Each structure stands twice: as C-alpha cells, then as structure tokens.
C-alpha cells in the first residue's frame, strides 16, 4: 500500500504565505514555480520517504530551486507522511517545528 500525504494547517499556511509573497514581490510565474518545486519535493518524499532527520524527529527535504525545507514525519502504522512545515532556510532555527 502506498503512503499518503497529510499537510498540517500550519504547513498549508506557510505555503500560502510563500505563494502570496512571491506574487507580491516577484510574479505569478515565480509563485507557480514555487508550487511546482514544493510538489516535486513532496513527490520525492513519497518515493524515498527516509530523508535525513534534520531536527528532533523531523525529516527534511530541501526544495531544489527555492530556499525552503519541507519538514515531515512518518506514521509507519497508518502509512501516512505528515508535512509539518515548509520552512524558509533564512528563518531563525528557533522557529523550527516542535510538534
């Protein structure tokens, strides 16, 4: 059985904020490329699942083009990958997800 992706409300909000930022400060095309990069990172997570543990029990997958890390956990029993945060790498690491 294939793993499923669950995106938390916090992660969804972070994605929306990033898209809004790129629309406002760059263009809709850049915002669209951000979403494509995010979707590619999630697709990579679904294929590999066990990327490096970056922080506490959170694994992380760097986005290729944009300076963001997709933080996630894995629920082995229910076969769910939970995206906890989409974190800009210039942010203070104190803001990393904690739950």
Structural commentary:
This protein is an alpha+beta fold. It has a single domain, classed as 2-Layer Sandwich (YaeB-like fold), CATH 3.30.2310.20. 38% of the residues lie in helices and 29% in strands. Strand 4 and strand 5 form a beta hairpin. Helix 1 runs antiparallel to helix 2. 21% of the residues are buried.
Helix content: 25-40%
Shape field: globular
Structural class: alpha+beta
Taking pLDDT < 50 over at least 5 consecutive residues as the criterion, the unreliable ranges are none
Mean pLDDT rating: 92
**What is the distance, rounded to the nearest whole angstrom, between the alpha carbons of the first and last residues?**
26 Å
Element-by-element helix/strand order: EHHEEEE
Strand order of the largest sheet: 1-5-4-3-2
- The CATH architecture comes to 2-Layer Sandwich
CATH topology: YaeB-like fold
CATH homologous superfamily identity: RelE-like
Q: Strand percentage, roughly? A: 25-35%
Question: How many separate domains make up the residues?
Answer: 1
* Computed CA radius of gyration, to the nearest angstrom: 13 Å
- Sheet bearing the most strands, described? 5 strands, mixed
Report the total helices: 2
In total, how many beta strands?
5
Write the layout of secondary structure elements.
Elements: E1 4-7, H1 9-25, H2 28-48, E2 53-55, E3 58-62, E4 68-75, E5 80-88
Parallel strand pairs: 1-5
Antiparallel strand pairs: 2-3, 3-4, 4-5
């Amino acid at each position: 059985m294939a793993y499923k992706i669950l995106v938390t409300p916090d992660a969804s909000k972070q994605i929306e904020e990033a898209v809004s930022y790129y629309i406002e400060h760059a263009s809709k095309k850049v915002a669209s490329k951000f979403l494509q990069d995010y979707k590619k990172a999630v697709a990579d997570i679904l294929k590999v699942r066990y990327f490096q543990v970056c922080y506490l029990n959170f694994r992380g997958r760097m986005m290729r083009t944009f300076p963001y890390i997709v933080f996630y956990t894995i629920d082995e029993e229910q076969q769910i990958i939970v995206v906890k945060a989409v974190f800009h790498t210039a942010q203070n690491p104190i803001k990393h997800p904690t739950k």
